[in-house]
Specification:
Structural class: alpha+beta
Radius of gyration: 23 Å
Strand order of the largest sheet: 1-2-3-4-5
Shape: elongated
Distance between the termini: 40 Å
Strand content: 25-35%
Number of helices: 6
Length: 225
């Protein structure tokens, strides 16, 4: 996507008009929740983003006003007072597409996890989620779940490779364990779903393109599990 406002944010607004705004509203448990999307052509990013790193032996000027850039402002409001949040989506000169979140959370709120179809969940996150099952000696539940599509699976374990931990599986007939990513898209997807559900009691799991990597013949067993 080109880095200009119309290419980045135009498609989400009616008639590609950046002057329009988007409001998504829902009532959940008798409380109204709103998400508001608005194009901001004059967003001023945090100081660490607005001031580039100077060359050696060069001072940073402090008498210049910070430069504004364009952003998509996203405001969320739960009308029972439990959560209000404002975020700014913009392009950082070094980090690329960046989401700056300013939020206030009051009281209890449910957790939600989004599992994207085209992106791997971070190995660190998955290994931490799986560690919770290992601590309670419940990793066998996850193994049984994954056997729906891979009956040869014997065990799952966490393997440290350099600074990063990965979830590996041992298949019957193989001498070495394999990273779960190497066992197929369906195995990775089912592992992520099972661990995400366990991490979000009473919350929501959003699965993008659920059918990817899963043959239709196994779906009934997946839903039951």
């Amino acid at each position: 996507v080109r880095g200009d406002p119309h290419a980045m944010f135009g498609p989400i607004f009616r008639d590609f008009d950046l002057k329009n705004e988007v409001l998504i509203s829902a009532t959940i448990n008798d409380a109204q929740e709103d998400a508001h999307f608005k194009f901001n052509p004059d967003y001023i990013p945090p100081s660490d983003s607005a001031i580039p790193t100077p060359p050696a032996n060069q001072q940073i000027p402090t008498d210049e006003s910070p430069k504004s850039i364009f952003a998509l402002d996203i405001t969320y409001d739960r009308h029972d007072g439990s959560k209000q949040q404002t975020s700014h989506l913009y392009i950082h000169p070094q980090r690329g597409l960046t989401l700056k979140v300013d939020y206030i959370v009051v009281g209890k709120h449910h957790k939600a996890i989004f599992l994207a179809a085209k992106k791997h969940t971070a190995p660190k996150e998955i290994s931490e989620w799986f560690s919770d099952f290992v601590k309670e000696s419940r990793e066998g539940e996850i193994v049984d779940f994954l056997r729906i599509i891979e009956p040869r699976l014997e065990t799952l374990k966490i393997v440290q490779e350099g600074p990063v931990a990965f979830v590996h599986g041992k298949l019957q007939g193989l001498l070495r364990t394999l990273d779960i990513h190497l066992m197929g898209e369906g195995m990775e997807k089912l592992l992520n779903i099972a661990l995400a559900i366990a991490q979000s009691p009473g919350g929501c799991i959003f699965v993008d393109e659920f059918e990817n990597g899963l043959h239709y013949s196994c779906l009934s067993n997946v839903w039951s599990a």
